[in-house]
């Protein structure tokens, strides 16, 4: 099975989101954790999951290039750089600098940028990113603990992160379909633009954008814009029709949720779970000590673990409490403390027999998956759009890595009916 699409994701939840999109559209896909060292698995698409979204710019570039090199030497015909559907980044990066470095490595001069994901209410109109009816900077993302998004104009946001210039393929063009989009991108590239933000408000738009980008060396975006890519490989006779590629080993055993996302969606899911399952909300501000928090949580879990419903352990807190901890410790140290505590909790839960684990939050998932020593994830069926169950090798447990913003209010309960 020749490798067709090589993907680099800037966080772990984003990687499973993308892998799930590709599986759903007929590509046999494997998610590998970190820059691969040995031989790559057989697959139509490989998604390398990095924890580079909030890493120092230089590290994010170095890891992304190392991943690209591995994927290219395994034969990848196109590279996909996956970032968040809410374009999570800072003025320093890392979306612009990583995309710049990948373009250079690929000897290409132009890439599209499209984080739209209509199934999860992310749409782009006139270059502005909306979450449902709200502009990005009024969606709650302006309060993100690590990557607060205070500007919805993606042309402006990306321009701040690159020395290249950024153009727009507007809705009126996108709505005309693949040929018009291809022509508009060619004009922008010939006019010296390095990037084009591409508007999209529907899956039909995303399919057309994917088709228009069939010949691009690099595509950048959310998982949505990947939905049109398998058809390009199929049209060239490179991708056979595949039977259901989303089957996992049978699941059983104790259930748990560990949450470090402070998004509105995750706070709502914790609120819902309180009425249906044991929920422990850690007082991080009161005990800013990772080992002590983890010990408290694991002591609480004793006797509460069950195979028919989950327990929920959350550090998640509303913006005022996050701000208070950050004022005390600094932004990065606060995030690192909580990630350390929650990965210790996850490790302790698995040692106590948890076999089905939901982790809420991208950075949080990165910390947990790394602590559990997971090297590969096999992708199963979706619980809600963008969040599949996965099977973790070599740990042998089922994991669902939930993007902070994804999932319905009942996600933490519903997940365990779907595995
Ligand atoms: N109570 C808290 N105070 C400060 N930071 C927190 C708290 N709870 C969680 N965090 C940190 O907030 C960040 C949330 O990021 P992440 O896990 O990526 O969630 P999301 O998917 O919503 O972006 C993590 O670094 C996490 O450790
Ligand atoms: O594109 C998305 O929104 C997700 O796939 C994603 O990247 C998740 O990031 P977090 O919200 O930090 O989990």
TrEMBL record:
EC numbers, comma separated: 2.7.1.217
InterPro entries: 4-carb_acid_sugar_kinase_N (IPR010737), 4-carb_acid_sugar_kinase_N_sf (IPR037051), NBD_C (IPR031475), NBD_C_sf (IPR042213), OtnK (IPR050007)
Record-annotated Four-carbon acid sugar kinase N-terminal domain positions: 5-229
Catalytic activity line of the entry: 3-dehydro-L-erythronate + ATP = 3-dehydro-4-O-phospho-L-erythronate + ADP + H(+); 3-dehydro-D-erythronate + ATP = 3-dehydro-4-O-phospho-D-erythronate + ADP + H(+)
GO MF entry, a single one: kinase activity
Residue intervals of the Four-carbon acid sugar kinase nucleotide binding domain: 256-412
Record keywords: ATP-binding, Carbohydrate metabolism, Kinase, Nucleotide-binding, Transferase
NCBIfam families: OxoTetrKin (NF043035)
Task of the protein: Catalyzes the ATP-dependent phosphorylation of 3-oxo-tetronate to 3-oxo-tetronate 4-phosphate.
Family: Belongs to the four-carbon acid sugar kinase family.
Protein name according to UniProt: 3-oxo-tetronate kinase
Organism of this sequence: Falsiroseomonas stagni DSM 19981
